[in-house]
Inverse folding.
């Protein structure tokens, strides 16, 4: 952002508070620029000359209104001087008086571009700079916080590029102040207000070096509660952070159906985070040599002890290799305790690669991640092999509950599931998308509990099955989710609000009795909530209620057109 642009944009903020006093001030500065000595000499000479002429006319009995050319010139100069004096002292008075002009007058000073952005006149910018230099002790900005003179200096350094925005935390040693200064600087640079994006209420120290760089505030997402979800004999109130109307209400209805049916049951099938580096050799044969070495059961013990040395919790489980020519993709899987585990598995992989370099010096490590892991991308390897926690969750919903709570019938649900979640998704070439809306529930629970929201991609892989049981009367419903990637320590889980949601579920932090117990429980809750969400949405579609309920809960009659 160039300096000129800064000047232009910074004026937008400052004009609101300070520039208003200076509407006509450039004229005042022009007046001052005439040397006062010359002015007073001319003024008093003219007055002196006129008084002498006046005395002579009285002595000679000459009528006063009879004037010659020089007297006429003296009179004109006298009046011009009076007007000048009035103007000069009058402006000083205006400058010293608090500004009282209205918004309409303000608009006259700011021109508007076709896209609505304010263009500040150069004369205003000069005025703003003068005011900043001479008068400003404290300035109120859109954040409703006082900018001290000390802050002002840092803000200007950031705006001008002398201080990099990213260095504010380390320079100031105060994360909240750094966020505030960055925010004000950003407002000035862009000329856009951040009003509405809260600054207060977040512990900026807690995100430093862990959750977010260069913070300027935080986004508010409402958290709703679905439940109780009766799962494996325990009740959970499920926090869901979402802005999609209907979602919590719908999941809540599913929870109710499960509850009155006696609850859902879940089984954790697998628990292992993966990382797959890509290494290259000169020949495919050498790549295959390493593959056989890594997959040889006799070598596993040594490799595991090398892998495990960097963490108390990361324990190597399996190594699976895939070859593409002379490139080898090595998919390491390890348990990670209560952590989601990406850092942990990466450290273990690094240890093994360093160890292998001794026996395979011709191995060229191209990348610690070769996308065969596969993180945050839809991939069949996760769908088939699993990543993170693999969970299956089921419930039997009696006929009366399907009727009374879900307002549909078993046959309709089974048919819809077959044609939509199975056949429809197959027709669409889905990868792990054999469900109605698993990602809705996964994302909402992830946001509420501090999970990595980008991992909703593979975490939402889910196949929903529905079958008529007990002689066709009742509904057996299940969700199978092979890649639920969750943790209860590390990342965003330690932030106050996310931590409170984990606490509500009884899975906050590290499980003291059984490492990984909390993360595994959270994965089961995610699957149970998805089961509830699937039941409810599928029922709404089967009963033809989807559009109706969305019109009720998801459509506001408020005017949402952009405000200028
Ligand atoms: P991730 O591997 O998910 O990115 P982090 O490395 O950020 O997670 O956080 C895991 C950290 O928490 C590690 O330093 C680990 O030693 C520590 N930790 C403490 N208790 C546990 C636990 N029960 N399970 C896993 N990690 C734990």
């Amino acid at each position: 952002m160039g300096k000129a642009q800064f000047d232009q944009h910074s004026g937008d903020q400052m004009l609101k508070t300070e520039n208003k006093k200076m509407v006509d001030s450039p004229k005042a500065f022009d007046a001052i620029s005439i040397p006062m000595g010359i002015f007073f000499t001319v003024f008093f000479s003219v007055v002196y000359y006129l008084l002498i002429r006046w005395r002579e006319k009285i002595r000679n009995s000459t009528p006063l209104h009879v004037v010659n050319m020089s007297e006429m010139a003296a009179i004109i100069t006298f009046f011009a001087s009076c007007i000048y004096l009035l103007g000069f002292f009058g402006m000083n008075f205006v400058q010293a008086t608090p500004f009282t002009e209205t918004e309409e007058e303000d608009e006259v000073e700011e021109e508007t571009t076709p896209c609505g952005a304010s263009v500040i006149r150069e004369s205003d910018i000069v005025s703003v700079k003068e005011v900043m230099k001479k008068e400003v002790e404290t300035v109120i900005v859109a954040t409703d916080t006082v900018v001290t003179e000390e802050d002002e200096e840092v803000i200007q350094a950031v705006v001008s590029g002398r201080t990099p925005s990213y260095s504010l935390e380390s320079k100031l040693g105060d994360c909240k102040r750094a966020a505030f200064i960055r925010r004000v600087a950003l407002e000035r640079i862009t000329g856009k207000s951040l009003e509405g994006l809260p600054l207060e209420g977040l512990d900026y120290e807690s995100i430093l070096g862990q959750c977010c760089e260069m913070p300027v505030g935080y986004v508010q997402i409402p958290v709703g509660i679905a439940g109780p979800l009766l799962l494996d004999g325990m009740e959970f109130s499920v926090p869901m952070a979402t802005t999609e109307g209907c979602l919590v209400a719908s999941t809540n209805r599913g929870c109710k159906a499960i509850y009155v049916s006696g609850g859902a049951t879940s089984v954790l099938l697998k628990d292992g985070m993966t990382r797959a580096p890509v290494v290259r050799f000169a020949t495919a044969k050498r790549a295959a040599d390493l593959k056989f070495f890594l997959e040889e059961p006799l070598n596993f013990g040594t490799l595991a002890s090398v892998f495990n040395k960097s963490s108390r919790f990361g324990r190597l489980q399996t190594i699976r290799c895939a070859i593409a020519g002379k490139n080898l993709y090595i998919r390491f899987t390890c348990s990670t305790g209560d952590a989601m585990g990406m850092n942990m598995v990466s450290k273990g992989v690094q240890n093994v690669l360093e160890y292998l370099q001794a026996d395979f010096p011709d191995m060229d490590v191209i990348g610690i991640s070769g996308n065969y892991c596969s993180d945050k991308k839809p991939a069949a390897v996760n769908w088939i092999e699993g990543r993170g926690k693999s969970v299956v969750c089921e419930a039997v919903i009696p006929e009366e509950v399907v009727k009374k709570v879900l307002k549909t019938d078993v046959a309709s649900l089974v048919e819809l599931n077959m044609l939509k979640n199975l056949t429809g998704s197959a027709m669409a070439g889905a990868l792990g998308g054999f469900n109605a809306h698993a990602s809705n529930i996964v994302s909402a629970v992830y946001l509420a509990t501090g999970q990595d929201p980008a991992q909703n991609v593979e975490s939402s892989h889910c196949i929903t099955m529905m079958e008529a049981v007990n002689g066709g009367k009742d509904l057996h419903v299940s969700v199978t989710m092979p890649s639920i990637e969750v943790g209860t320590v590390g990342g965003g889980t330690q932030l106050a609000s996310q931590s409170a949601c984990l606490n509500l579920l009884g899975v906050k932090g590290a499980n003291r009795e059984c490492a990984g117990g909390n993360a595994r429980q959270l994965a089961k809750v995610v699957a149970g909530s998805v089961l509830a969400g699937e039941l409810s949405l599928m029922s709404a579609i089967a009963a033809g209620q989807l559009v109706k309920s969305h019109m009720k809960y998801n459509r506001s009659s408020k005017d949402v057109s952009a405000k200028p």
